[in-house]
Design brief:
16% strand; alpha/beta; Rossmann fold; 212 residues; six-stranded parallel β-sheet; two-stranded antiparallel ribbon
Length: 212
Protein backbone atom coordinates (compact mmCIF):
# COMPACT_ATOMS: atom_id res chain seq x y z
CA UNK A 1 0.00 0.00 0.00
CA UNK A 2 1.41 3.36 -0.97
CA UNK A 3 1.25 6.33 1.37
CA UNK A 4 0.81 9.87 0.07
CA UNK A 5 3.26 11.87 2.14
CA UNK A 6 2.13 15.26 3.33
CA UNK A 7 5.72 16.33 3.97
CA UNK A 8 8.77 16.20 1.71
CA UNK A 9 10.23 12.71 1.53
CA UNK A 10 13.83 13.93 1.55
CA UNK A 11 13.64 15.82 4.86
CA UNK A 12 16.51 14.76 7.11
CA UNK A 13 15.43 15.12 10.71
CA UNK A 14 18.02 14.89 13.49
CA UNK A 15 18.79 11.48 14.87
CA UNK A 16 16.63 10.71 17.90
CA UNK A 17 19.65 10.04 20.08
CA UNK A 18 20.76 13.66 19.57
CA UNK A 19 17.49 14.88 21.06
CA UNK A 20 17.78 12.45 23.98
CA UNK A 21 21.31 13.59 24.74
CA UNK A 22 20.18 17.22 24.68
CA UNK A 23 17.31 16.38 27.06
CA UNK A 24 19.65 14.50 29.42
CA UNK A 25 22.11 17.40 29.43
CA UNK A 26 19.35 19.88 30.27
CA UNK A 27 18.01 17.67 33.06
CA UNK A 28 21.48 17.34 34.56
CA UNK A 29 22.28 21.03 34.15
CA UNK A 30 19.15 21.94 36.09
CA UNK A 31 19.77 19.16 38.65
CA UNK A 32 16.33 17.75 38.09
CA UNK A 33 15.19 14.26 39.05
CA UNK A 34 12.14 13.61 36.88
CA UNK A 35 10.21 10.39 36.67
CA UNK A 36 10.72 9.38 33.03
CA UNK A 37 8.30 7.05 31.23
CA UNK A 38 9.74 5.62 28.02
CA UNK A 39 7.76 3.96 25.23
CA UNK A 40 8.56 0.42 24.21
CA UNK A 41 11.01 -0.06 21.35
CA UNK A 42 14.57 1.01 20.69
CA UNK A 43 14.14 4.27 22.58
CA UNK A 44 14.24 2.25 25.83
CA UNK A 45 17.79 1.18 25.02
CA UNK A 46 18.74 4.67 23.88
CA UNK A 47 17.48 6.47 26.97
CA UNK A 48 18.95 3.87 29.31
CA UNK A 49 22.34 4.36 27.67
CA UNK A 50 21.97 8.15 27.70
CA UNK A 51 20.55 8.75 31.18
CA UNK A 52 20.46 5.59 33.33
CA UNK A 53 18.47 6.04 36.55
CA UNK A 54 16.12 4.14 38.82
CA UNK A 55 13.58 6.89 38.09
CA UNK A 56 13.17 5.58 34.53
CA UNK A 57 10.09 3.46 33.80
CA UNK A 58 10.49 1.43 30.61
CA UNK A 59 7.01 0.52 29.46
CA UNK A 60 6.21 -2.59 27.44
CA UNK A 61 2.57 -2.06 26.44
CA UNK A 62 2.14 -0.02 23.27
CA UNK A 63 -0.37 2.80 23.57
CA UNK A 64 -0.44 2.87 27.38
CA UNK A 65 2.40 5.37 27.81
CA UNK A 66 0.34 8.56 27.98
CA UNK A 67 -2.25 7.16 30.44
CA UNK A 68 0.58 5.85 32.62
CA UNK A 69 2.50 9.13 32.64
CA UNK A 70 -0.70 11.09 33.22
CA UNK A 71 -1.53 8.89 36.20
CA UNK A 72 1.92 9.38 37.69
CA UNK A 73 1.69 13.15 37.26
CA UNK A 74 -1.68 13.25 38.98
CA UNK A 75 -0.64 10.91 41.80
CA UNK A 76 2.61 12.81 42.45
CA UNK A 77 1.87 16.45 41.61
CA UNK A 78 5.07 17.61 43.33
CA UNK A 79 7.26 15.52 40.99
CA UNK A 80 8.22 16.36 37.42
CA UNK A 81 7.12 13.62 35.01
CA UNK A 82 8.57 13.33 31.50
CA UNK A 83 7.05 11.06 28.87
CA UNK A 84 9.20 9.94 25.94
CA UNK A 85 6.57 8.60 23.57
CA UNK A 86 6.37 7.67 19.89
CA UNK A 87 4.04 8.61 17.06
CA UNK A 88 2.83 5.01 16.81
CA UNK A 89 1.87 4.86 20.48
CA UNK A 90 0.15 8.24 20.37
CA UNK A 91 -1.87 7.23 17.32
CA UNK A 92 -2.95 4.05 19.11
CA UNK A 93 -4.42 5.95 22.08
CA UNK A 94 -5.67 9.26 20.70
CA UNK A 95 -8.55 9.32 23.16
CA UNK A 96 -6.05 9.87 25.98
CA UNK A 97 -5.30 13.29 24.50
CA UNK A 98 -8.79 14.50 25.43
CA UNK A 99 -8.19 13.38 29.03
CA UNK A 100 -4.80 15.08 29.03
CA UNK A 101 -6.37 18.31 27.76
CA UNK A 102 -9.09 18.14 30.39
CA UNK A 103 -6.84 17.45 33.39
CA UNK A 104 -3.77 19.48 32.26
CA UNK A 105 -1.28 18.40 34.96
CA UNK A 106 1.27 21.19 35.27
CA UNK A 107 4.08 18.77 36.13
CA UNK A 108 3.88 16.66 32.94
CA UNK A 109 6.08 17.08 29.86
CA UNK A 110 5.02 14.95 26.89
CA UNK A 111 7.68 14.56 24.19
CA UNK A 112 6.52 12.58 21.15
CA UNK A 113 9.49 11.35 19.11
CA UNK A 114 7.86 11.24 15.69
CA UNK A 115 9.90 9.28 13.14
CA UNK A 116 6.83 8.74 10.93
CA UNK A 117 7.23 4.97 11.17
CA UNK A 118 7.03 1.82 13.23
CA UNK A 119 10.80 1.46 13.23
CA UNK A 120 10.96 -1.34 15.81
CA UNK A 121 8.90 -3.72 13.66
CA UNK A 122 10.44 -3.04 10.29
CA UNK A 123 9.98 0.62 9.45
CA UNK A 124 6.41 0.54 8.20
CA UNK A 125 5.11 4.11 7.74
CA UNK A 126 2.81 5.47 10.43
CA UNK A 127 -0.07 7.82 9.71
CA UNK A 128 2.18 10.81 10.39
CA UNK A 129 4.13 9.87 7.26
CA UNK A 130 0.99 10.82 5.38
CA UNK A 131 -1.75 13.29 6.23
CA UNK A 132 -2.01 12.87 10.02
CA UNK A 133 -0.75 15.82 12.08
CA UNK A 134 -0.33 15.17 15.80
CA UNK A 135 0.04 18.86 16.56
CA UNK A 136 -3.32 19.64 14.94
CA UNK A 137 -4.92 16.61 16.63
CA UNK A 138 -3.65 17.72 20.04
CA UNK A 139 -4.93 21.25 19.45
CA UNK A 140 -8.31 19.89 18.40
CA UNK A 141 -8.48 17.84 21.60
CA UNK A 142 -8.06 21.03 23.60
CA UNK A 143 -4.36 20.95 24.47
CA UNK A 144 -3.14 24.53 24.70
CA UNK A 145 -0.06 25.47 22.70
CA UNK A 146 1.18 22.11 21.42
CA UNK A 147 4.62 22.51 19.88
CA UNK A 148 6.38 20.92 16.92
CA UNK A 149 10.16 20.99 16.48
CA UNK A 150 12.23 19.54 13.67
CA UNK A 151 15.79 20.70 14.41
CA UNK A 152 18.13 20.19 17.34
CA UNK A 153 18.38 23.95 17.92
CA UNK A 154 14.60 24.26 18.09
CA UNK A 155 14.44 21.38 20.54
CA UNK A 156 17.15 22.75 22.81
CA UNK A 157 15.32 26.06 23.10
CA UNK A 158 11.92 24.43 23.53
CA UNK A 159 12.98 21.87 26.14
CA UNK A 160 14.77 24.52 28.18
CA UNK A 161 11.58 26.55 28.23
CA UNK A 162 9.45 23.51 29.02
CA UNK A 163 11.57 22.54 32.00
CA UNK A 164 11.48 26.11 33.31
CA UNK A 165 7.71 26.47 32.98
CA UNK A 166 5.16 25.22 35.47
CA UNK A 167 2.57 24.08 32.97
CA UNK A 168 1.75 21.09 30.79
CA UNK A 169 3.96 20.69 27.74
CA UNK A 170 3.01 18.63 24.66
CA UNK A 171 5.76 18.58 22.04
CA UNK A 172 6.08 16.68 18.76
CA UNK A 173 9.76 16.11 17.96
CA UNK A 174 10.45 15.17 14.34
CA UNK A 175 13.28 12.66 14.39
CA UNK A 176 15.03 9.89 12.51
CA UNK A 177 15.78 6.58 14.21
CA UNK A 178 19.33 5.53 15.11
CA UNK A 179 20.51 1.92 14.79
CA UNK A 180 19.57 -0.30 17.72
CA UNK A 181 21.95 0.12 20.65
CA UNK A 182 21.13 -2.97 22.70
CA UNK A 183 20.61 -3.30 26.43
CA UNK A 184 23.57 -3.51 28.82
CA UNK A 185 24.46 -6.98 30.06
CA UNK A 186 22.39 -7.93 33.09
CA UNK A 187 19.62 -5.39 32.38
CA UNK A 188 16.03 -6.47 31.86
CA UNK A 189 12.86 -4.44 31.49
CA UNK A 190 11.26 -6.38 34.35
CA UNK A 191 14.18 -5.55 36.62
CA UNK A 192 13.93 -1.87 35.66
CA UNK A 193 10.27 -1.78 36.69
CA UNK A 194 11.08 -3.10 40.14
CA UNK A 195 13.88 -0.56 40.42
CA UNK A 196 11.43 2.19 39.50
CA UNK A 197 8.83 1.08 42.05
CA UNK A 198 11.40 0.79 44.82
CA UNK A 199 12.75 4.23 43.90
CA UNK A 200 9.28 5.78 44.23
CA UNK A 201 8.75 3.98 47.53
CA UNK A 202 12.01 5.38 48.93
CA UNK A 203 11.47 8.89 47.63
CA UNK A 204 7.83 9.18 48.63
CA UNK A 205 7.95 7.04 51.79
CA UNK A 206 5.11 4.82 50.60
CA UNK A 207 4.59 1.09 50.17
CA UNK A 208 3.56 -0.04 46.70
CA UNK A 209 4.76 -3.65 46.40
CA UNK A 210 5.09 -6.12 49.27
CA UNK A 211 8.63 -6.99 50.29
CA UNK A 212 9.41 -10.61 49.60
Amino acid sequence: MSVTRRREADVDYPNRIEYLRALAAEIDRRRLEPLVVVALGAMIDEWNATHPADANFFNSAMGSNLPLALGLALALPHRLVVLLDTDGSQLMTLGALTTLATLRPANLRVLVMDNESYAYTGGQPSATAGVADLEAIARGCGIADPRRVSTLAEFEGAIGEALRDSRLCYMIVKASSPPGMGLPRGFTRLESKYRFVRYVERQENVSILPNR
